[in-house]
Amino acid sequence: MPYERPLIRVEPPGPKARELIRRHHELIMTSTHDPENLPLVIERGEGVWLVDVDGNVYLDFTSAIAVNNLGYPTHPEVARVAIEQLSVLAHAAGTDFYNPYQIPLAEVLISIAPGDFGKKVFFSNSGTEANEAAIKIARYSTNRKYFVSFIGSFHGRTMGSLSLTASKPVHKKRFYMTMPGVIHVPYPNPYRNPWGVDGYEHPDELVSRVLDFIEYWVFEHQVPADEVAAVFFEPIQGEGGYVVPPKTFFVELKKLADKHGILLVDDEVQMGLGRTGRMLAVEHFGIAPDIVTLAKALGAGVVPLGATIFRKDLDPEPGAHSNTFGGHALAAAVAAKNIEVIKSLLPHVSELEKLFIERLAELKERYRAVGDVRGLGLAWGVEFVKDGRTKEHDAKTRNRVLYEALRRGLVLLGCGKSAVRLIPPLIITEEQAKIGLDIFEEAVKASHS
Ligand SMILES: Cc1ncc(COP(=O)(O)O)c(C=O)c1O
After folding, report:
1. How far is the CA of 445 from the centre of ligand 1 (A)?
2. Is 128 in the pocket of ligand 1 (CB under 6 A)?
3. Tens digits of pLDDT across the chain (449 residues)
4. According to CATH, what is the number of the domain 78-342?
5. Is the beta carbon of 359 within 6 A of some atom in ligand 1?
6. Mutational pocket test of ligand 1: of 69, 280, 296, 323, the residue with most ligand atoms within 8 Å of the beta carbon
7. Cα separation of 90 and 105, whole Å?
């Protein structure tokens, strides 16, 4: 029977969940879990619903961190393809030999990446690996050493991508030194930036502040522009708080990059694949990046899969980079079907965007603790502050909201220092989205002091 509403039988964490969480902490590496994580032990999923080990039913507004864009447990069309593929071939050394399955996926990925130029694809298993490949392609092809990335960004946790990441100090604590040569610059965050510019009222001023920073403070004081291989960016910062930059930012950034022969690497690991109502989030900003990285939703929650799509002329020589699982036949078949289903959902996501715009604007009007609301499609961030004037972060209220929502049957995740992200599976219906938004408002009301 499909679920229609959340159903909380026992206050989470229930007895089974408590025991499993205790055992988890005994056995699994501590670093994977933040002490503020919600005590949710998921046993199964159905569409947009999650059922915990104590029988509580929740509405999911996380998509398992932007992975299960097609919901749970597996979209039926993707499941059918996966089962068929399993009976033919799952893995057969797709980087040493050849298989027919990775070719159609490469073609479809090339077709969804903007830019009327030749492209190629490298397959990997995760977001961090997709970005490591991008780092190597950029360095190899330009023979330049430096990178620029943005404060607040998250690009992964292996040593190369970690050096680009500037999200939380704990990610880097005791890991010095990571890859040298990365310069971090402010992201054009309209709500909160070093210059105090209201980027909603004055987007052009914010854009020029960031670009001047790069041109003057970086290229004239720190590193020569002609030794910078690439600028890495998230088209919307995900872990950093679902921050949407001004519309013109990337066009201007591209002009600057082109002037100095610098590549642009677009990290779509969290925002790509339909999340914003377009196949790639960068499509909202009108540029064609030189390299695009994908992971998370690419494998539809069935297979771990990353991809790096790059300009054909940047292609490194044989042996320069490779791996074991790239071109995995099962992963390739699943991802190709997944993209086809996501494509069919794009109009639905754009339609639902209106509901989120309207309901979250009302929320901001009603509650002082809501400092900022931003997003596109089904990718929304709500930032909590102690005082709208000083914009002091209010992580305590944010954390209460997460818990108050959970106990009412809505699963949410935090992001940034004091924001909540609302990222339901793209298959969510309008009625289900309304249920989630109602619970979210109740949780804000209950947490608001
Ligand atoms: C934008 C972005 N890039 C890269 C990553 C790293 O992906 P993974 O955890 O698969 O290595 C993440 C993960 O949250 C991300 O949000």
Report:
1. 32
2. yes
3. 579 999 999 999 999 999 999 999 999 999 998 877 899 999 999 999 999 999 999 999 999 999 999 999 999 999 999 999 999 999 999 999 999 999 999 999 999 999 999 999 999 999 999 999 999 999 999 999 999 999 999 999 999 999 999 999 999 999 999 999 999 999 999 999 999 999 999 999 999 999 999 999 999 999 999 999 999 999 999 999 999 999 999 999 999 999 999 999 999 999 999 999 999 999 999 999 999 999 999 999 999 999 999 999 999 999 999 999 999 999 999 999 999 999 999 999 999 999 999 999 999 999 999 999 999 999 999 999 999 899 999 999 999 999 999 999 999 999 999 999 999 999 999 999 999 999 999 999 999 76
4. 3.40.640.10
5. no
6. 296
7. 15
Question: CA–CA separation, 223 vs 209, rounded Å?
Answer: 19
Annotated domain spans of the chain = 15-74+347-447, 78-342
Q: Give residues with Cβ within 8 angstroms of 181, minimum separation 6.
A: 145, 146, 147, 163, 223
List the structure tokens of 382: 């709500």
Indicate whether residue 154 lines ligand 1 (CB < 6 A). yes
Is 277 near ligand 1, meaning CB less than 6 Å away? no
What pairing do the DSSP bridges indicate for beta strands 291-294 and 306-311?
antiparallel
Rounded Cα–Cα distance for residues 447 and 402 (Å): 9
In the CATH scheme, what is the code of domain 15-74+347-447? Answer: 3.90.1150.10
239 lines ligand 1 (CB under 6 A): yes
The full DSSP string for 118-183 is -EEEEEESSHHHHHHHHHHHHHHHH---EEEEETT----SSHHHHHH--S-GGGTTT----SS-EE
Ligand 1 probe mutation, 131, 158, 270, most atoms within 8 A of CB? 270
Ligand 1 center to 154 CA (angstroms): 7
